[in-house]
């Protein structure tokens, strides 16, 4: 599973890292969403449901799960 975030469009609402901290975190430099290091490249398939939930709850639809 691949996880990506369009950081340029992130509004730092915190929903993604609240919904799924195993995949997303707040970047301390700019407060925007980042994919956690362990999930870069190929994220664990068992986190798909949580990732899709975070993507569905994102108010600006910038999270992509493939």
Description of the molecule:
The chain has 66 residues and is of the alpha+beta class. The protein has one domain (3-65): Alpha-Beta Plaits, CATH 3.30.70.20. 23% of the residues lie in helices and 18% in strands. The chain has helices at residues 15-19, 48-57, and strands spanning 3-5, 24-26, 33-35, 63-65. The strands form two sheets. A two-stranded antiparallel ribbon has the order 1-4. Strands 2-3 form a two-stranded antiparallel sheet. A hairpin with a 6-residue loop joins β2 (24-26) and β3 (33-35). It is globular and about 30 Å long. The relative contact order is 0.34.
Mean pLDDT: 94
Number of separate helices: 2
Provide the low-confidence segments as ranges. Answer: none
- End-to-end Cα distance, whole Å, is 6 Å
SSE sequence, one letter per element:
EHEEHE
At CATH level 3, the topology is Alpha-Beta Plaits
Q: State Rg.
A: 10 Å
Strand content: 15-25%
Beta strand count: 4
Overall tally of structural domains = 1
User: Tell me, what is the CATH class?
Assistant: Alpha Beta
Fraction in helix? 10-25%
Walk across the major sheet and give the strand order: 1-4
CATH architectural category? 2-Layer Sandwich
Biggest sheet details? 2 strands, antiparallel
Topology readout:
Elements: E1 3-5, H1 15-19, E2 24-26, E3 33-35, H2 48-57, E4 63-65
Antiparallel strand pairs: 1-4, 2-3
What's this entry about, in short?
This protein has two helices and four strands. It has 66 residues and is an alpha+beta fold. The chain has one domain: Alpha-Beta Plaits (2-Layer Sandwich), CATH 3.30.70.20.
